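Protein: Peroxidase
Species: Urochloa decumbens
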Amino acid sequence: MAVKSCVVMLIPLALLLLAGSSSPAVAQLDVGYYSKTCPNVEAIVREEMEKIISAAPSLAGPLLRLHFHDCFVRGCDASVLLNSTEGNLAERDAKPNKSLRGFGSVDRVKAKLEAVCPNTVSCADVLTLMARDAVVLAKGPSWPVTLGRRDGTVSSATEAADQLPPAYGDIPALTKIFASKNLDLKDLVVLSGAHTLGTAHCPSYADRLYNFSSAYNADPSLDSEYADRLRTRCKSRDDKAMLSEMDPGSYKTFDTSYYRHVAKRRGLFQSDAALLTDATTMEYVQRIATGKFDDVFFKDFSESMIKMGNVGVLTGAEGEIRKKCYIVN
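Structure follows.
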């Protein structure tokens, strides 16, 4: 019942965001886009996602991350899913994307849809639905997903390296990157809450633990006890095997404990710590960290995910509907 009421509450919001958008492409997206061509698309995706997350709960975070990394480079066009070719190094092989997981799960869901509705549902829509369902199945909020995205045919590792928000980013740098996608400072602090799910490899945060600067061995913005604990897992900057939970203790559950860690200076990345350096983002972190505003965060996250899912979409005759998500037709 709770999920149903949440969806009903947010439908007017989705329509409002579409109506207020200046993008003709976004205006072509529609919750019922496949109502005649593939009416069971959401049920098919959800059924497969239930099986995937039931078998591997730790995949919720990576599947959500795939959607983020897709939308921040060329918009939400599934370009992150394309394989590299002999003459082109694709996004998924860019350094920031080397740790992405979940590609096989996307292929699995796409194959199910192709069997029922061939050449109909885009990989971009599949990934957007899977990200939403990953959050729901991790006990997070639900929101209506407008559909009708088309798949891009270009994927560049160079663009990914240049455009993805870096784990070491400060507020000015991150704000600039988000603004380039029509996302604001609130979206930045809210979408950072996605770090409640998943794990990270040592190289993405080891610089905070070893030889941080000429004055400090470890990042002074990182709680010293937490830094000591991280060093027991991450022995050096070159340790690529060890994983750390981004939200220790509940990394498979979508909740607000991430903000409690950040408020205690125990965010894993420099970009997490940066949220305490700006008055607006710090106020939001501290408010959600109280544990009294989970419903506010869930609503905010839903709104920001709708906005992000509309970034740079291809519609109409643009792009294509890939038969297989890892290769252009």
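Remarks: Confidence is low (pLDDT under 50) at residues 1-12, 15-22.
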